[in-house]
Amino acid sequence: MPLVFFTKIAVPMWLVAVGLLIVTILIYLKKPCISRNLIIINSGIIIAGVPFQPLQQYSLFFWIVGGAIVLSGIFLFIRDRTISKKCEHESKEGAK
Q1: Assessment of whether the complete model's pTM goes beyond 0.90
Q2: Per-residue pLDDT, 73
Q3: Domain limits for position 20
């Protein structure tokens, strides 16, 4: 397997990802300049990728919960984009 070395660094990389997510959330709470939906998607990916051996018996649960969070984040992202496009389109028609 060419990517077997990832098994040795999975836990440290996951911890770095959680740390960066916490920093991102703190920055978002201080000044919301980061997309809330992308934070939701990243949270779901991190939950789905829990690498701890004692929790492997619950990995299906983590995949389902993380996947549901990712899908809801994608849904919210697309919904916000379509709503903003409709608003831009309506304001252009009203200006004519």
Answers
A1: no
A2: 93
A3: 6-95
